[in-house]
Amino acid sequence: MTARTTPQPTVAPPSAAPLPAPGHSAVDFEQRVDFGRLRDYRLARARAALESSECGAFLLFDFYNIRYTTQTWIGGALGDKMTRYALLARGGEPVLWDFGSAARHHRLYSPWLEPDNCRAGMLGLRGAIPPSAGLMESAVREIRGLLEDSGLAGAPVGVDIVEPAFLFEMQRQGLRVVDAQQLMLDARQIKSSDEIALLNQAAAMVDGVYQDVVEVLKPGIRENDVVALVNKRLYEMGSDQVEAVNAVSGERCNPHPHNFTDRLIRPGDQAFFDIIHSFNGYRTCYYRTFAVGSATASQRAAYARAREWMDAAIAQVMPGVGTDEIALSWPAATEFGFGDEMAAFGLQFGHGLGLGLHERPIISRLNSLTEPVELQAGMVFALETYCPASDGFSAARIEEEVVLTPEGARVLTLFPAQDLVVANAY
After folding, report:
1. Are strands 157-159 and 57-60 parallel, antiparallel or unpaired?
2. Cβ–Cβ contacts within 10 Å for residue 369, how many?
3. Which domain holds residue 327?
4. Which residues, 6 or more positions from 68, have their beta carbon under 8 angstroms from its beta carbon?
5. pTM of the full predicted structure?
6. 168 and 209 part of one domain
7. Which of 207, 256, 281, 231 is CA-nearest to residue 384?
8. pLDDT tens for each residue of 332-380
């Protein structure tokens, strides 16, 4: 097995002690999440990734990488417009360009950033302001000047994601651009104790929401009603972003459509849900499947198979194990009705969780058999299984989030899922 190497963690992964889900607030009588320590850890990991590379600096547009290095965030409607960006240069402090009013807010409320390094920036809102306006040209000139002042002229610049016009402008002004996304994903894959606590808190919030879902899951409620309930409850509980809720029921379960509609829930339906939200930036991806009122033998059999595949995968999660070994514990695509692994991707599946929904490691027969990654303590990832039922339209979907400790996997997602839960049984 050939494994990707990554910088080593600087904090110990959790021991066998219970994982904390301490609450949303800070108190004087318990040690909870230490956000200063969290910020220091993330910036140190990003700097270590930079130092391990050929780059003189990272120029980051991916808003999860920006948060990881600058510890700042603005709403997703603005944060994904390829306008805010950050420069992390060797030997220097992070420099952030943001919407002007947000930059002013950072200077007031983000004291870990140097005030002069919080700058107003605007590149064009994904082309709405065309490159001919000169905003990209002046931005690249400013970045070039900062690199020259730092003695890094001529050194490669690592970029994670970028608009073509901005890439062309960097090249036109003589900057050599290389890939930084692989390095930043490597840096982010080993979680500190503070990150694990936030991931666990996010999962605990969904534990509670699933109780609400079970109580309302009756004939006559619609998929979108459940989605509305989930959003309301999570925001009431302190979520900072409900990214998506899949609600899939009845004949919509197979094939899996990865969405929700206004379909009415009916007696005897099988229904599954995926709740994706974040707490202080740290995400969940958390499926559960229920039967409504009653369950058929076909539905129970599908659920039992999905659970067997899940348990087989979790049993193998240990430091040093390759992701190929996890993927092989799941059935091949042809065994559950698909022509090949590309067609079935995302059904028997694992993915890292953190500030982003899909981080390292990605575990699938599509990629893990040819390029496995060695599991390490401190990784947090979700494992997903899916089994179509013999009735031709029902299906079971289960997902568990796990943190890898030196002793093995610890499950974060605690709403009961060992057996098919029948909501509001007749």
Report:
1. parallel
2. 15
3. 193-423
4. 42, 43, 45, 46, 184, 187, 188, 355
5. 0.94
6. no
7. 256
8. 999 999 999 999 999 999 999 999 999 999 999 999 999 999 999 999 9
